[in-house]
Amino acid sequence: AADAFRAAAEAGGGPAALNNLAYMLVLAGSPAGEAEAVLQKVVDQVGLSPEVLDTRGVLRLGAGRAAEAV
């Protein structure tokens, strides 16, 4: 699934596609640094929307940083 979101993001899917890619990278167990880099692109484009904050929380939980997830 992450490959499909990566393809959508590369095809100009915009911030939503990048946010979904970051989320899928976390769920797929990819290194947190990869998902964080993708998510930072979203933050740079649209700021901290509720969707971005949700993804960031999931990412931080997955990285064992629960205190930073809330």
Write a structural description:
- This protein has 70 residues and is an all-alpha fold.
- The protein is globular, with a radius of gyration of 11 Å.
- The mean pLDDT is 90.
- 79% of the residues lie in helices and 0% in strands.
- The termini are far apart.
Topology (elements, then pairings):
Elements: H1 2-10, H2 14-27, H3 32-46, H4 50-62, H5 66-69
The helicity comes to: over 70%
| Average predicted local confidence, pLDDT | 90
Instruction: Using the alpha-carbon principal axes, give the shape.
Output: globular
- Main sheet record: none
| Cα Rg | 11 Å
Helical segment count: 5
Give the SSE order as H and E letters: HHHHH
How far apart are the termini?
26 Å
Model regions low in confidence, pLDDT < 50 over at least 5 residues: none
Q: What share of the residues does DSSP label as strand, in percent? A: under 5%
Decide which structural class fits the backbone: mainly alpha
Topology, number of strands: 0
Output the keywords:
single chain; 70 residues
Summarize this, please?
The chain has helices spanning 2-10, 14-27, 32-46, 50-62, 66-69. With 70 residues, it is mainly alpha-helical.
